[in-house]
Design goal:
Length: 308
């Protein structure tokens, strides 16, 4: 990944240098690339544009020809080569590069190729090789690029480590939930694995009326209490109630909360636990199951659970 970033940043730095009219710096940055990276279509296209800006139309044409070898439908390469051919057919390629006519043609070539940067004026002297300040600027840009690559690599490593940690935590939580579901499984209940928790439902209603629990419900809750006492978990007891004519249709009910309290007492009795070991809650009237019962939400301590 670092090599890919290095290539990407180098090409972008070369583009920035070209827009700033520092063509030698742009070329030098591209020269740092090796092998396949140097011959990539976007790199050759950029190099062709640099040649065009410097009036080196034959070199630009060669670069765009190489672009078309790997990308026949490359629009900029085709446009650039057509303009070069028009200039060549007009017999202007043999004129000195300092002639205004050719410089105007080169400027047209640059515009066709998509660059809004003018070529050097006709009376400008060719720019010499990089001066000491130019070298210093190159070194500064290279150092800046390498520092950015290192920072991006560090961030990538940090994100990968965080993702690995999260996956490990998820796997650990899944194992906890699977073990918890197995521990709570017993006749008369339905155990559902959820995200970070286990939901326990009862196969039959526990309360024939109001908050009066039947003997079967008492026995099931005491047995579940014994199982829960042996586990390091948090348990929420959720009371449910049927909607009655003229009653509330949402927001829970006193009856449902009373059923949660009764169920918690038998759970505490079975496991020899304090009543405060359980969290009590009334389900909304729209929640399932819509009958006279309770459900348990059991979550391993240290797990986020889904709270539903």
């Amino acid at each position: 990944m670092s090599d890919t970033l290095r290539v990407h940043l180098t090409v972008n730095l070369a583009r920035s240098a070209a827009r700033a009219r520092d063509l030698e710096l742009a070329v030098q940055l591209l020269d740092e690339l090796d092998g396949a990276d140097r011959d990539a279509a976007d790199v050759l296209d950029l190099r062709a544009r640099l040649h065009a800006q410097r009036g080196e139309l034959q070199e630009a044409d060669k670069c765009w020809a190489r672009v078309q070898e790997s990308a026949p439908d490359h629009a900029a390469a085709a446009s650039g080569r057509r303009t070069i051919k028009r200039i060549s057919d007009g017999g202007r390629l043999s004129r000195p590069l300092t002639r205004p006519g050719l410089l105007a043609a080169a400027a047209a070539l640059v515009a066709v190729a998509g660059w809004a940067v003018a070529v050097l004026p006709a009376d400008s002297e060719p720019r010499p090789a990089l001066t000491r300040s130019g070298h210093e600027r190159t070194e500064s840009l290279t150092a800046e690029r390498d520092a950015l690559i290192q920072r991006l690599s560090s961030l990538t490593a940090e994100r990968a480590a965080a993702a690995d940690h999260e996956r490990a935590a998820d796997a650990r939580r899944d194992r906890q939930v699977a073990a918890l579901a197995k521990s709570l499984a017993m006749p008369g209940v339905i155990v559902q694995r959820r995200s970070g928790s286990v939901r326990v439902l009862f196969e039959s209603r526990l309360f024939p009326r109001s908050t009066e629990i039947d003997r079967n419900g008492m026995a099931l809750l005491r047995e579940l209490g014994r199982k829960i006492a042996a586990l390091d978990v948090r348990t929420t007891v959720v009371g449910h109630a049927v909607t009655v004519p003229g009653g509330r249709t949402k927001g829970g009910s006193v009856v449902a909360l009373g059923r949660a309290l009764v169920a918690a007492r038998y759970l505490a009795e079975g496991g020899n636990l304090a009543l405060t070991s359980f969290t009590l809650r009334s389900a909304d009237q729209s929640a399932t199951p819509r009958r006279r019962t309770v459900t348990l939400l059991v979550t391993p301590k240290g797990s986020r659970g889904d709270g539903t």
